[in-house]
Every structure is written in structure tokens, then in C-alpha cells.
């Protein structure tokens, strides 16, 4: 079994119980290097819980998560970041009191592996590169703005940029286009395709917006009650009668 | 972030350095004393303003520094030579260690945040005050008297800093050194990550940062600087007592920093100088009602100007690399703006 054929991220039979409630019911999921996958499913089906398990926020009741051939279940969120998995939160989460460039500096510091302060005594990241990073992230014109002053869409874009800048190899994006205009959504689609094509990054996206899923043109995983209901191309999924009934026709009210 | 901040900052330090030209010995001694409080205030401003950690027991580190200096220079620590230099070193290292270890213990795991951190640090200061009161070797309730003045130099080339002028100069150098050290840290990547942790600790942790270690490191630096101030205090007054560790001083420094502005080091420094000198004037004319005035000032600062009364005039702009970094030539801007629709 070589690196290339083995799944990059491999979620095996993961169960997550909260008291009496089973949020994840033996879910299994795979994603390869440089692959983009969307997860859809009704509210409460366990999408965000799955992300929390993969990123180390939650320890699963049973089951296993492995990444790049190594088990990562039970590691701290920091350790999982160090392995190359970065998660974007459902509610946009950037450093609001800092300028966009300061935000970038934090991500650059993470990229330089200065996760503890002692390495920094010998010198931090190279500040002369920030201009290029801002330009690549298409944030140049916002460099000296506070993150809290940014329009909603740009703030989401900043958060994704932070993850990309840290050199993450797998991005977990939880509803990256929530509350965005169509134009902003398109920018995110291009951003995701860009990092996949340019940097070979794998991306797992939770999304509600079906037009976004269609534009992304990726594989779609449909989740239902903590497990995978179906997996396939957008076209196949959107025509599947059972899914239409389960997901599109029968959305639980939060 | 006024454009006068930088000239004002320079002007202030130059004016302080020029003080010996206009002040007599007595007043120079008073000014040195105020500057020691200023250094102490900067130590709190760093951990509170940059780290977002409201330390309610900063006096703990000031007191440890003062006792370390007193015990060393009086030759009361076995195996440590009774010199000013060793005294100063211990007065910085011990409180830095104490703060660093306390920090790690408090921040690791789920971590103490907000008011809980304040309460624990306050308790630590109160406990230390009690311990010092009951520990007869370090003087107990009466404290330690007859602490020798500072001596600089080696062998026969020693000068004793008994006169106000040389002592003032030493305090000036210490103040500028502490200021530059804290300012450099604040403006480095370490400072940015620290502010990021203050702002959104979850995000920082989910970018891979061991935030507890960043906070503990900042706390250690803050403790070390507070200890330096304590050592200078001990040398000037030739006297230390358990009160230096305790509640009253911890509250005072909090007020200076809140009034000056916690996010700007110089504002905190001047806050200490200003409150202390106004106190000297007003406590003569108003007696104990002075505390009422101070309380009102404090409330004004916290409610109306939470960033402090002086900080708006003294806040330095960020390094250029953290505002508008040089544009990369290979990416002309128009292409970089595609697909964005800023309102």
C-alpha cells in the first residue's frame, strides 16, 4: 500500500455519543490528496461534530481517524494542526482586534513552526514576505484594516487564507459561504479550486448552499443521522430521489 | 494613534533624562521613586494590555524582587555573593520563574480565564504577604532594614550610589531598558501571537499554537520586570516589608495602568508618575478624601475611556510590515482584486 493510493484522511467507524445522544453513528469517510469533497445533510446530522472529531476538538467514543498514514485520534487540536489539518469554524473566527496583516503574521508564525515562544527568540517569520502573501490571498487592499472592520465575505476569506498560509495539507471548511452574496461565494469557489490546484491541498467542505456545491463540481457526501447516506457526483446526488426526500424535502427546523 | 505619538514618546524620555539639569537632589530622588513605580506599571501593562490577562496580584513579583535584592545584598542568601549585580539578577530571575510556573499551572489544560485568573493571582499575593509576615528569617512583620545602597563596578573601582543623581541615572537606564525590551517584544511576532491569543484564543490554538506557553512566557517577562522595579525600590528605601507583596500595592498599580492605558506601555508609565505625583499634592490638601478623587478617576477611566486617558495620545503606530507591507512585484494589484466587492 503506497502513500498515493492510501486515503489521505481516513475516518473509520467513528461513533460520538453525547450522554444518550448518538451524534455520529459509525461514520466512515475518505479523502485523497488534492481532493475536494462536500458534505451535505440536514441540521443535526453530525457534520460539525465530524469536523470537531477530525480536528481534535472532541475525542470520539469509538472509531479511528488517520491522516497521511498515521492515527491522529486523541491528539490535541494543536498536535493535529502540526500534522497539517486546519479547520475553519462555522462562525467566522479571525483575530478581530488585529490588522489583516497582523492576522497573516500569526499564520506565518504558525507556518514557521514557532508553536511555542522559545523558538521565536531566535527570530520570527520573515516580514518582508507578507506583501506577497496578502497579494496571493487577494487581501492587499485590506492590509491595515482591522479584521473586525472587514465586510463579512472578506472576513471569511481571511480565515481561509490564514489556514492556507499555515501550510495546511487538509482544510476543513465549515459553511464557508454562509451569509455571503453570490459574488462572494464565487470568490470562495475560486479560492478553494486555487489551493487545490496550486498547492495540492485537500479540502473537506460542509455546505448548505447547493449552487455552491454545483459550482465546486466536487464529490458530494450526504450525511444522515450521523452516518453517510450516499456518496457521488453532484449530478447523481441531486437526482437521487431518496436524498431529495431526506434532505431537500424534509429539512428539520434547526 | 495620533501622529504626534512618536515625537511625544521621544520628547518624554529626553525630558526625563534632562531632569537632573533642573531638579535638586531631593526632587530627583522623588522622581526616581516615581519612575520605579512606572517600571512596575509597565510590567502590568504588558501582561494585561498585550496578553489580556488581568493580574490582580502583580505586587507578588514586585515584592519577590524587593526581597531578593534585600536578602542578597545583605548577604543573607547562603552561597550567593552579596553584590548589587547578583541582587538585581536574582530579583529578576526569581519573580520571572515564579510568574512563569504559576502561569503554566494556571493556563495549561482548560486554563483559567477572566476574573478567575485575577482572583487566583490576588490570592497568591495575599498568601505571599502572609508568609512573609510569619517568616522570621526574612524579617517577619517588621521586614528588613538597612539594605545597603547599590554599588556598581568591580574590586577597588566601586561607586556607591548613595547620592540621588547616580541612583536616578541607574533608574533611568533601567526604565528605558525595560521600556525598550517590552516594546520590542510587543512589536515582534511574539507580541502579535500574544495579542492574537488575547483576542481569540481558540483560533490561535486551532492554528497550532500552544497558547498556554505563550501566555506563561509573557507572564514571566512581566514578572521579571516587576521584580526589577522591586529591587530598585528596596535599594532606594533601604527597607522592605510584607506590604510590598500584598493587596494594597497590587490595587494601586492596577489603577495607575487603567488610568494611563493598559495597551500602551508609556501611557501606563506616565499613569503611575501622574497618579503618584497628584497623590502627593492632593493627599496633603484633601487628606483621606484623596482616595475618593482617585476612585472617581478610576471609574471614569474604566467606564468612559476603557483604553485609558493617555493611551490615545501615545499609541505608536504598528511597524509598517504589519500595516502596509511592501507589495510583491510579481503580483500587480488589479489582478489581486478580482472577485471582491468591498462596499
Description:
The complex is a heterodimer of chains A (254) and B (343). With 254 residues, chain A is of the alpha/beta class. Chain A folds into 2 domains: 1-84 and 168-254, P-loop containing nucleotide triphosphate hydrolases (Rossmann fold, 3-Layer(aba) Sandwich); 93-166, no CATH class. Chain A has 10 helices and 10 strands. Chain A has helices at residues 47-54, 77-83, 100-111, 117-120, 130-136, 152-165, 182-199, 210-216, 234-239, 241-248; strands at 9-18, 21-31, 36-40, 62-67, 70-71, 85-88, 170-174, 202-206, 219-224, 227-233. Chain A is globular. Chain A starts with 8 loop residues before the first strand and ends in a 6-residue tail after the last helix. Chain B is an all-alpha fold. Chain B has helices at 5-17, 19-22, 25-50, 59-73, 84-107, 114-134, 164-187, 189-199, 201-205, 211-237, 247-260, 265-286, 290-303, 311-314, 333-336; strands at residues 151-154, 157-160. Classes of the chains: A alpha/beta (254), B mainly alpha (343). Chains A and B meet through helix 2, helix 3, helix 4, helix 5 and helix 6 of A and helix 8, helix 9 and helix 10 of B.
Percent of residues in helices of chain B: 55-70%
**What is the ordering of alpha helices and beta strands of chain B?**
HHHHHHEEHHHHHHHHH
Please tally the β strands of chain A and state the result.
10
Average pLDDT level of chain B: 90
CATH level-four homologous superfamily name of the largest domain in chain A = P-loop containing nucleotide triphosphate hydrolases
Shape of chain A: globular
Distance from first to last alpha carbon of chain B: 25 Å
Number of beta strands of chain B: 2
Percent of residues of chain B in beta strands? under 5%
CATH fold category name of the largest domain in chain A:
Rossmann fold
- Average pLDDT confidence of chain A is 89
Amino acid at each position: 500500500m503506497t502513500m498515493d493510493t492510501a486515503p489521505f484522511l481516513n475516518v473509520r467507524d467513528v461513533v460520538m455519543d453525547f450522554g444518550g445522544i448518538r451524534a455520529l453513528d459509525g461514520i466512515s469517510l475518505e479523502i485523497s490528496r488534492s481532493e475536494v469533497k462536500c458534505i451535505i445533510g440536514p441540521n443535526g446530522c453530525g457534520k460539525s461534530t465530524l469536523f470537531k472529531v477530525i480536528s481534535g476538538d472532541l475525542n470520539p467514543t469509538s472509531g479511528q481517524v488517520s491522516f497521511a498514514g498515521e492515527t491522529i485520534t486523541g491528539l490535541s487540536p494543536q498536535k493535529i494542526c502540526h500534522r497539517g489539518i486546519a479547520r475553519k469554524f462555522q462562525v467566522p473566527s479571525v483575530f478581530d482586534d488585529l490588522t489583516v496583516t497582523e492576522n497573516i503574521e500569526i499564520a506565518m508564525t504558525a507556518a514557521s513552526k514557532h508553536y511555542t515562544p522559545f523558538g521565536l527568540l531566535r527570530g520570527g517569520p520573515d516580514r518582508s514576505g507578507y506583501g506577497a502573501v496578502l497579494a496571493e490571498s487577494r487581501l492587499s487592499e485590506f492590509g491595515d484594516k482591522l479584521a473586525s472592520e472587514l465586510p463579512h465575505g472578506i472576513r471569511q476569506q481571511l480565515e481561509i487564507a490564514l489556514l492556507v498560509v499555515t501550510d495546511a495539507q487538509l482544510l476543513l471548511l465549515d459553511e464557508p459561504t454562509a451569509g455571503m452574496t453570490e459574488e462572494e461565494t464565487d470568490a470562495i469557489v475560486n479560492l478553494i479550486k486555487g489551493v487545490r490546484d496550486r498547492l495540492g491541498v485537500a479540502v473537506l467542505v460542509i455546505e448548505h448552499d447547493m449552487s455552491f456545491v454545483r459550482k465546486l463540481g466536487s464529490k458530494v457526501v450526504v450525511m444522515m443521522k450521523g452516518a453517510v447516506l450516499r456518496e457521488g457526483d453532484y449530478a447523481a446526488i441531486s437526482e437521487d430521489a431518496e436524498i431529495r426526500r431526506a434532505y431537500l424535502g424534509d429539512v428539520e427546523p434547526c | 494613534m495620533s501622529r504626534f505619538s512618536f515625537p511625544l514618546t521621544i520628547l518624554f524620555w529626553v525630558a526625563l533624562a534632562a531632569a537632573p539639569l533642573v531638579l535638586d537632589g531631593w526632587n530627583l530622588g522623588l522622581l526616581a521613586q516615581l519612575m520605579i513605580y512606572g517600571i512596575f506599571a509597565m510590567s502590568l501593562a504588558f501582561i494585561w494590555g498585550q496578553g489580556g490577562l488581568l493580574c490582580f496580584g502583580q505586587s507578588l513579583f514586585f515584592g519577590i524582587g524587593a526581597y531578593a535584592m534585600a536578602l542578597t545584598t545583605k548577604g543573607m542568601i547562603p552561597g550567593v555573593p552579596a553584590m548589587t549585580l547578583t541582587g538585581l539578577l536574582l530579583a529578576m530571575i526569581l519573580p520571572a520563574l515564579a510568574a512563569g510556573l504559576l502561569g503554566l499551572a494556571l493556563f495549561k489544560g482548560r486554563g483559567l480565564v477572566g476574573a478567575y485568573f485575577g482572583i487566583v493571582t490576588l490570592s497568591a499575593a495575599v498568601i505571599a504577604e502572609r508568609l512573609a509576615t510569619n517568616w522570621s528569617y526574612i524579617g517577619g512583620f517588621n521586614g528588613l532594614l538597612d539594605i545597603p545602597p547599590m554599588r556598581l563596578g568591580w574590586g577597588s573601582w566601586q561607586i556607591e550610589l548613595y547620592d540621588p543623581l547616580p541612583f536616578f541615572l541607574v533608574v533611568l537606564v533601567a526604565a528605558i531598558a525595560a521600556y525598550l525590551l517590552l516594546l520590542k517584544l510587543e512589536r515582534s511576532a511574539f507580541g502579535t501571537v500574544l495579542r492574537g491569543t488575547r483576542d481569540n484564543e481558540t483560533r490561535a490554538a486551532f492554528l497550532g499554537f500552544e497558547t498556554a506557553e505563550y501566555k506563561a512566557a509573557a507572564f514571566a517577562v512581566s514578572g521579571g520586570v516587576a521584580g526589577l522595579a522591586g529591587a530598585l525600590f528596596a535599594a532606594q528605601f533601604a527597607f522592605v516589608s510584607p506590604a510590598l507583596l500584598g493587596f494594597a500595592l497590587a490595587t494601586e498599580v492596577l489603577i495607575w495602568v487603567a488610568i494611563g492605558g493598559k495597551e500602551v506601555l508609556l501611557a501606563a508609565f506616565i499613569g503611575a508618575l501622574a497618579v503618584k505625583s497628584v497623590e502627593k499634592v492632593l493627599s496633603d490638601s484633601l487628606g483621606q478624601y484623596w482616595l475618593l478623587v482617585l476612585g472617581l478617576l478610576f471609574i471614569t477611566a474604566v467606564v468612559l475611556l476603557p483604553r485609558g486617558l493617555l493611551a490615545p495620545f501615545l499609541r505608536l503606530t504598528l511597524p509598517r510590515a504589519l500595516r502596509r507591507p511592501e507589495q510583491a512585484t510579481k503580483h500587480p494589484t488589479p489582478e489581486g482584486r478580482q472577485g471582491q466587492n468591498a462596499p
